[in-house]
Structure formats: structure tokens, C-alpha cells
Amino acid sequence: MGRNNERNIKKHNDKLHKAQNKVKQAEIARKEKLKEIIKKFNEDKKEE
């Protein structure tokens, strides 16, 4: 029995894709937060 059978490959790919999605979601959340901060900063600048 080889180590690179279909089940192991699928399990590895699922784990890899899950990790990649987690990174992608974190990046999207960071960008959203940055947009909010910039928006708030610009509003504060207008008030002055």
C-alpha cells in the first residue's frame, strides 16, 4: 500500500484548501477593517 493513495491525497488537499481559505478570509477582514478606519479618519478630517 502506497502512502500517496487517493484518500490521503484528498485529506491533504482538503486540509490545505481549508488553511488557504482561512488566510484569504483573514485578508478580506483586514481590508474591510482598514476601509472602515480610513472612512472614519476622512470623516474626522472633514469636520475639522
- Strand segment count: 0
Helix-strand topology string: H
Describe the global form: rod-shaped
Low-confidence stretches: none
Taking the alpha carbons of the first and last residues, their distance comes to: 72 Å
Note the beta-strand portion. Answer: under 5%
| Rg on CA atoms, Å | 21 Å
- Give the number of helices: 1
Quaternary state reads: single chain
Q: What structural class do the secondary elements suggest? A: mainly alpha
Overview features:
rod-shaped; 1 helix; mainly alpha; 48 residues
Describe the structure.
Residues 9-21 have a biased composition (Basic residues). Residues 1-25 are annotated as: Disordered. This protein is an all-alpha fold. The mean pLDDT is 92. It contains one helix and no strands. The chain is rod-shaped and about 70 Å long.
SSE layout:
Elements: H1 6-47
Biased composition (Basic residues): 9-21
Region (Disordered): 1-25
Brief characterization of the structure:
This protein is mostly helical. It has 1 helix and no strands.
